[in-house]
Each structure stands twice: as structure tokens, then as C-alpha cells.
Q: What sequence folds into this?
């Protein structure tokens, strides 16, 4: 039945959203702990999950349109989950099932939005800190043969004795 297929695809979407939330949370932990080594990998995994989500959402749209037709609903384009809930047969379980999916997806999307906004602030602050640190560096210091420090204003040649 088409409602089963849609429900299965919505479960898949929820799983991707949970993984996306996990990756955004991981990204925040990496940034706040200064673990920039893994930041590129985490960001790449987030982009991969976003691509998977887009594909899944397209499938959900197709299945939603098909199900709306089966249930005799008239709609421009693909109906929303709320519209499907409203148009679901009253004598079956689908209104409740689709409502549960909708509530879970909305909650996950809100959590993802919150964490990703926090990450953007942390990343911006980290970038500003790096820029400020780079501006605060003074001239390079080298050491004489006697061991005293002398600032250098250009390139230096290091001579190894012995």
C-alpha cells in the first residue's frame, strides 16, 4: 500500500535528520574543543547527509502526491504532511501515524536549526580569534651563537654547526 511506502520513507527521513543532528552536535564539540583536524571530515559528512535528505524528500513528495490521489485529495503539487493528515481516511490509522511523523520531523528540524546556528556563531568567533592572533604576532626571533634573542626583519639562514 502507498501509505506504507510513505511511512517507510518518512522513517528514513527521520533517521537522516537524527544523523544530521548528531553530526552538527559533533561539529560543535570539535569547534569548542579546538579539534580543527576533524572539522573538514565532519563538514563533508554533513553535506553528504544533506544530499541524502534532498533525495529522500523528493521521494516523499512523489509518494505524498500519489497517496493524495488515492485518497481523493485535490492539491496543487505535492501535499504537505499536514494536508495528508487532514485528508486521511477517518476509519484508519494513517492520520495518527502521519501526524506522529510530522511532529517528529518538525522537532528534529528545530533542533538542527538551533545547533547549526550555534555552530555558525562558534565558527565565526573561532575565525575572528584566529585573525586576531595572526595580527598580534611580532617579528620573528632568532638566537645568536651566544644564546641571546635578536629579532629578524627578513629571511634568516640557519647554520648547523658540528
A:
Amino acid at each position: 500500500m502507498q501509505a506504507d511506502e510513505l511511512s517507510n520513507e518518512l522513517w528514513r527521513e527521520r533517521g537522516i535528520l537524527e544523523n544530521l543532528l548528531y553530526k552538527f552536535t559533533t561539529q560543535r564539540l570539535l569547534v569548542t574543543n579546538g579539534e580543527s583536524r576533524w572539522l573538514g571530515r565532519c563538514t563533508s559528512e554533513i553535506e553528504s547527509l544533506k544530499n541524502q535528505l534532498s533525495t529522500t524528500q523528493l521521494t516523499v513528495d512523489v509518494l505524498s502526491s500519489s497517496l493524495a490521489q488515492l485518497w481523493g485529495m485535490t492539491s496543487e503539487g505535492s501535499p504537505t504532511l499536514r494536508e495528508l493528515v487532514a485528508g486521511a481516511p477517518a476509519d484508519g490509522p494513517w492520520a495518527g501515524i502521519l501526524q506522529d511523523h510530522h511532529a517528529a520531523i518538525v522537532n528534529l528540524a528545530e533542533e538542527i536549526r538551533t545547533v547549526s546556528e550555534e555552530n555558525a556563531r562558534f565558527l565565526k568567533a573561532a575565525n575572528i580569534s584566529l585573525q586576531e592572533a595572526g595580527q598580534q604576532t611580532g617579528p620573528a626571533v632568532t638566537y645568536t651563537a651566544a644564546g641571546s634573542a635578536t629579532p629578524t626583519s627578513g629571511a634568516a639562514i640557519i647554520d648547523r654547526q658540528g
In short: The chain is about 70% helix and 5% strand.
